Each structure stands twice: as structure tokens, then as C-alpha cells.
Kinesin-domain-containing protein
Amino acid sequence: MSGNTLPRRSIAPPTGPLPSLPVPKQRSSNASPASLRTPSSGLPSPSNRAVSYSNSPYRPGAAKHITSPSVPTIAAEHAAGGPAPGKSLRKVVSIGAFPQPPKHGLRTPSSPLASSASINGDSVDQRLSTGSKASIPSRKSSLKKPRASNIGGGRGLLSKSPLSPPSFLNGNGSAESVAVDTSHLSLPSPPQSRNSSPHRSRSTSATTIEEGDDEARGRKNNKTDGESTNKGNVVVSVRVRPDVGPKDGQQDRDWDVNGKRHMVTYHGRDGGGDYIYDNVFDTQDNNARVYDATAKRLVRRVMEGYHGTVFAYGMTGTGKTFSMQGTATSPGVIPLAITDIFSYIRETPYREFLLRVSYLEIYNEKINDLLAGPVIGMGGQPGPQEEIKLREDSKRGVYATPLKEEIVQSPTQLLRVISRGDQARRVAGTQFNSRSSRSHAVVQIVVESRERAPGPSLAGDKRSAIIPGGVRVSTLSLIDLAGSEKAADDKERRTEGSHINKSLLTLGAVVGGLAGNKTGKDGKKDNHLPYRDSKLTRLLQGALSGNSLVSILCTIQIGASGSVAASSNHANETLNTLKFASRAKNNIVSHAKKADDSLGAGGDAGSRALLDRYRLEIQDLKRQLEEGKKKEDKDEEEDEFRRDREEERAREQQDKQRHEEQMLEMQLARTALKERIEHLNRLILSSKSLGVNNGRAYSSMSLQRASTFSHVSDFRPMSVRSSASHATLEVPRASIQSFPSPVEGSEEDDSVGENGDGLASQGVQIQALQADLADRNRYIATLEKRLLQARRSSHSRLSMSINSRHGDSEDGGLLATIAERDSEISTLRAQLEDKERMITALTAARKRNDTAHDVGSDGSPGSRRTSSYQRSEGSSVNILHAKGPTSPTSPNSAPFLPPAPTNPGKNIEEMTRMLDEMITGRVDRAARRSSLMPATEVRRP
Ligand SMILES: Nc1ncnc2c1ncn2[C@@H]1O[C@H](COP(=O)(O)OP(=O)(O)OP(=O)(O)O)[C@@H](O)[C@H]1O
């Protein structure tokens, strides 16, 4: 019935608390709890397998995924707190059966048991059991006299010494007691404490095994030392499930189970005989005892660096899952192994550990990742999981990939992860088991460890105290196989059953073939074992071929009622299981070696230990950090250098600009001064000329004055001259521009030439005035230019100073420069004024000179001058008429002359003043314009 399949993949993890122990499959047992035979034996009722989530704080996703780089490793120090005083529980653990690890500094022997095999295990066991034997209650023994068995394995064992089967669990090897402190475990103790096992000789928990039975189990008498050694690495146990139905007398008569002698005897016709194993657990043995005898030491060895595999094999419904997972009240191999793993970590403070766990199932020959969670496909629908394949490499052996691995740091976390996988595992109700496992389930715990430095580093950082040594990697595989079963009615169950049976057959074939593999016909090993015929055997290849310690727990049910065993051929099925167990015990030869501490340098990234990968990653990150820091420093240095250079360049630029401005200013100042000097030179020459002319004939003086008329002061001779001819005195009053142009005055030039009296013609005077004006204009333009430059430079410097870092000092410098320029301008103005005063003084001197001449002379020169003036005025009269007001004089008496001045000296002064004012006013205006007008609006006059 397909509806019975319970792929729990889609079930969301419970949000409530999880039980303290892993959850077994919930099964509605077909047996009534009331029908349990020995309620006081500690065996849980089937109903006890119901999962209780009530007390476990389950938080989905609490476990970290392997890809997380920052997962701290597990170490004893990491356990929260220490053991509370007085609360620690001492457990006596005998680990002598497994190969002993070498002490520090010693090499691992080639065979883990080679050294321990030489130790008299019996004496050790006796010593250990001295105290406990007394407390061992006598077990009900159903041992009958052994008889020859027709089963290969069983016969072989029986033919030798049935009382001394070898076992790595309690055989040779030094025993060792360790104190296990569980008080600070985050995993709560199972409600049914292993200490409380009522029927076995355990001094504390079920950790002290049946030392009294060791003699009977030794197999060394049968085998050579070497074989014995290797055989000790393989433990095969048989567990008998209690009947749930009424007692079947016939069955009871056919089978005898002697746990003490590790023997199952079948009295039937086919296959009858004694079957002896390393352990035989009768119906009264609980899970704790089963774990202690089958897996405890193996788990410890795994923690020490060996690979270990524990698997349960048997018919459907015989108790494989019950043994592996257990119940909340009776935890099975998996939760007890987890407890011991963390106990070991706490006991080993000198090493640090990292645990990662994966959980897969092989369902219908397909591998599913039980931890991957539901895959969301198109449209939010659950999609198919990525196909998981089996690969093999020399380092890791056969492994499934891609498989999610979760790093776990506490027992609770690990149990939660496994519980999550259990939820996803396929179970279904079958004819024989209401919650039958339809797949083989494999829990794999990878243990990585490496040695710590003796103490914390100086910095107090424990992590930095890690010796950069090798990492030891070992794997513990805990496998709950699906049970072999007969053809079911339902098609889906049939399909599942056929895959299960096929894989189990292959397993049987491989295990059977191992015998031939040991000793080939030609002395060579036959390597053609059908490992690849099923995913299960392929996955178990490493363990079966001897690379790991192996513990096989075969479950049987001999009581017929109420179960599959009730079927007619249940005896055959049970015998098949026993035969498989015997073959496994005889054929599997383990030469497991303790993993070396690999330095992790070799191999690809995937095959490296995670601790190594983390270490490399940390180193890489550290290197990157340092490189980044160096680069940052370098960049900073370069930036600083670039900034410095830019600042320097900017400073240079500023200096250059300032220098250019200064040069320009100096050039301007030079030009202005040069022009001024030229101008003054001209003035001086005029004065000199005036002086020279003073010594000459009076008639030529005017000419000389006129010829040197280049300045407004030179206009005075004309004024003097005009004093005789008043008509001409009004000429300059109109405007300086109203002087006739040289062209217009050409007549005057001619008249001067004609007169030949040495006086400057008006045209020459006008030219001289114009030249003087041009000089002044140039000078003004120069001043304006200078002012403009000063303003520009101050403006640019001001803007630069805003952007500059040293703005304050630059501002001060700029202001100082402006003030300097202003004072320079003031100085120039003062100089100009000086010069003006000089000119005025010269003009005044000349005026006095002229006046003196005018007063001291007779009328001839004056009349001559007047007539001449009148003549010359003939041409200028028109001009005056054209530009000035018409004179009201009579036409007879000098009709072109202006009215005679009442005070000719006053006229001269006025004219001089007017000219001075005009020039000064122009200079001032120009100065004002240049200071007020925007630079772009300054126009040259
Ligand atoms: N030793 C035992 N004591 C008490 N009950 C047991 C014991 N072994 C098995 N049972 C019960 O028998 C039933 C079947 O057991 P379980 O599911 O473990 O069998 P199985 O071998 O795993 O079967 P399958 O192969 O079909 O998964 C369960 O209800 C379980 O509780």
C-alpha cells in the first residue's frame, strides 16, 4: 500500500522541545505492552518507542552547516562550566579490547592490536572483574552441551574452543580506567540510567562488562597471533528480541540462547548446532548493555583515530532500529555513542576536536540526504533532490557526495540533527512491522582532532596556542539496515523489499566472498568482490575490506508468536541471519590503523580535514588582512605624497602667478614712471627752453615757447600774448578740443612762418597740448591698467586663498598686498600731485616771467604781437565764431577780437587754473572710474 510510505521529508521539524535522547521510529507495535514477558527486566514496552518532544528545546537550524567558516572546534574547555563539585560521576571504562594508541612520541604499531595482543588479557580482565564478579547475578543459563554445528562460521568456532571466542572488546590488551565526568553534559542523562541495569554486573553504569566471560570468548587459541589480532577488530553480536506473543513451546524447545557463553543453539534438523559469537544478548539485555558490549570501545577507538563501523543486520521487525536508536527510556547505540564521544572530548583537554555529521539513506538503490531538507522546485513545489553519487579516493575511501554535513558542538545538537534525519527517513507499515524501515540508514560522524599546545599563549588566546600540527581524521559510521523480508502484497512494498533483499544478498555475498579474498587459490587475494552490485556494499566497502573496526549486531527473534517469526519459515530466516553473522565473524579481517596526524597540505581541498581547511582559511584570511593593511598603508602613503605634491604644485603655481603679477606690476610701474619721466623731461625741457628764450630776442621767445608747447603750462605764453589781444583769450575757455586741428591751423603755421617773429604758432601749441593730453591720457590709462591688474590679482588671490589650506595666512598676505598696492597708488597719486604742483609752480614762474616782460617792454612788440595776433586771429576768428559766441565788437576796431579784457593777468590765471582743473579732474575721474567700474567695463579713454 503506497499510502503507508511515510516520507517525512516534507514534515516540518517540531517547534517544541526535543527529547533528551534520539527519537526512534514511532511504531504502533503489533504487540501489546501487556504481553511483554518481563516488565521488570527494564525492557521497554513497544509503546515506549513513541517519541516525546515535550522536553527538548528543539530549534531548527541550530546546527551549523559545514560551509560556515567560523565554527569553533570542540574542546574540553569549551564545555560550559566544569563538573560541579561532588556531582561528578565516575565511570570505569575498560578500553583494553580495542587497540591502544601509542603514548605520546611513540609510533603507532603496524597493527593496532599487535602490542596489546602480547599482554595477558586474561589477567587484566580478571583483575578488572574481581570486584564486579561478586555482584553479578547468576544469569539464567540455557546452555546445553554443544554439539557439532553444520554452519560454517559456527562450526569453525565450535570445533576449536567454543568457550574462548576472541573479542576485541574484552580480549587482549591493557585495560584502562578513565574517569568520565558527565555532570556538565548538556545532554541530560537518560531517564533509564545505565547504572540502574538490574541484571548485570556493572559497578556503575553499564561500562564494566562481563569480565568473567572473557576466558570463554577468547579466540586466540584458534588463530595465529596475527589473525587473532585482526579478528579482534571485528565484533559480531547476536541479539534476541523478546517475544511479544504467547509462548510457543516448540520454539522454546528448538532454540537455546546462552548469553553467558555467547552462544545460540538450534536444535532443529536443518542447520542445527551451536552458534557462538562475540556477544549474545538474550531478551533480557537492554540497549545499554548491548551498546557497552558492542560499540563502546569502538567509539573510543574512533575518538583516538580509528575508523569504526557499527551496523545492525537482521530480519524485519527483529529490533535493528530498536537497538540502534533505542527509545527515550532506553537509548540505543547511536545516542549512547554520542554521549561517549562528548565524554571523550571532555576527557581530552590536550586535543581539540571538530565533529561533523551527515545522515543518508539508501532507498530503492538511491541515496537520499536526510539532512538536506526539502528541496523547493519550480512553483514552490517540492523538487527532486540533487542526485547523490558515491565516489572514491585514496584518502577518504568511498564516500557519498554531495552530502550535507553539519558541524555539531554538543550532544544535544548532534542528537537533534540525527532526529531530524530520522524524521526524513522512509518508514512504512508492513505485514511484519507497522513502522518498518524501508531504507538503509547511515549516520556518519567525522571526528577531526589535533593536539593543543600545553598552555595558553602569552596573549592568552587559546586558539593561537594551537600547535600547527597535523589533524587526525576518523569516521564513525552507525548503520541501521533495512530488514530482509518476504514478498509483500503491496507493489511499492514489494519494490522496496526487492531492493532491500538484493542489497542484503550482495552484502552477504561480499561477506561470504571475503573468505576467499583472504586466501586466494594461487596465494593471491581475490579482489573481485561484488561491492559495486549495491550502493550498500559500495558504501561499506572500506569497513568490509578491513579499513575500519567493525561491530555487527545481528538481531533475531526466535519466539514465533506475534511477529514475522511466526511465519512458517522464520527458523530459516533466523538461521540465515546467524549464518551471516558467523561468516562476518570469520571472514572480515580488519587491519584498521590509527589515522596519522596529517599535516593537511596534500590532497585536494575536499579531502582535507575541516580543521586543516579552517586553519588554511584562517592563515589565508590573516595573510589577506595583512596584505590589505599593507596596501592600505601604501595607498595612504601614496595619497599623502600625491597630496603633498599637489599642494606643492599649487604653491608653486601661486608663487609663479604672484611673481608674474609682481613683474607685471613692476613693468607697469616702470612704464608709468618712464612715461612720467619723459613727460617731466619734456616739461623740464620746456622750462629750459623758456629760460633759454628769455635770454633771446623777445620776439623769438614766444616762438620758442610755442615750439616747446607741449604741456598745459606752456599755454601761458599764449595767455601772456593774449593779454594784448583779448579776442583770443576766450579760446581755451570753450574746450581744449576747440583748438583748431593742425590742418585747420595750417594757416597759422604759415602766418608764423610768414611773420618769422619766433613765436609758436597756434597749431604747434595745439599739437603740443594734444601731445601733452595724450601723455596724460596714457599715464591715466597706465594707472587704470595698474589699478585693474591690482584688482584682478587681489581677486584671484582671494579666491585661491579660499580654497587653499592655509587660507588665513594667505588672506593676510592678500590683504597686505592689496594694502601695498593701494599705498603704491596713493604714492603715485601723491607723486602726480607733486608733479602737478611742480607744473603749477613752473607755470606760475613762467607767468611771472611773462608778466615781467610785458610790463618792462614798450608797445612795439606788443603792438607787433597784437597786429600779428590780430592777423593770426583772422583765421581763428572763424573758429571762434563757429564754436564760441559772436563777439559784439565793432567791425572797425578789430572786429574779430574779443572784447578787451579788463584784467589780462586774471585771464591768464583763470586759463591756467582751468587747464589745471581740467587735467586734475580728468586724472581724478580716471582714477575714480578705474576704482569704481568693473574690470570688464573699463574702457580706454
Ligand atoms: N529487544 C527488544 N525489546 C523490546 N522491544 C523490541 C526489541 N526489539 C524490537 N522490539 C520491538 O519490535 C518492533 C520492531 O522493532 P524494530 O522496528 O526495531 O525492528 P527492525 O528490525 O528495525 O525492523 P525493520 O527492519 O522492518 O525496520 C518494535 O516495536 C520494537 O519496539
